[in-house]
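Fig. S4 source data, part A: sequence.
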Amino acid sequence: MEDRPARVDVEGPELLAKGFRPYERYRVVLHHADGTSDHQVRDIVRGGQVVGVLGYDPERDLVVLIRQFRLAAHLADGRGDLVEIVAGMVEKGEYPDAAARRECEEEAGVAPRALVPMLAFTPTPGLTDEYARLYLGILDASRLPERAGSAAETETTRPFALPVDEALAAIAEGRCINAFLILALQWLALNRARLPELIAAAQS
């Protein structure tokens, strides 16, 4: 089981709107193995490359998360004061791991001393081309500020730390809806026994 390239002809883009991210239309001819083809019109939001960082303090066995207002979450289910991991866009010419360090310092107020690659995924491939890479950021939770965020982006985040078991329980009980957070914590649960080995390799 694996994703694979499609036999497809793509015409576009036609720019429909340009806000924080471009909204584009494409015309597609998708060719099937039986010789037939489908003609489709698809609109997407161009998200590009993004990173996410689950902060982790191995000395205290704490995860570092943030709270941030999200309008889309507020409109979806009324819970806009979202618990998240650090996340943000990879800037032009920037390497993903450099973006991860920058975003961690901006949103959590603490720079990680090491990054452990976790996984990569497309959050909503039916809507956007956003491609995300997640990292475990090794840091000192005792240095968290009360507030952080990029003033240039009118961003306010509230970093906090809690025991890993409490974070995993919140996910199991459905108390948090952010997909980046859920995926990162599930990865942590699956790889918890290997963390000393992974962290040592990242710090070497």
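Fig. S4 source data, part B ends here. Helices lie at 71-77, 96-108, 164-172, 179-191, 195-203.
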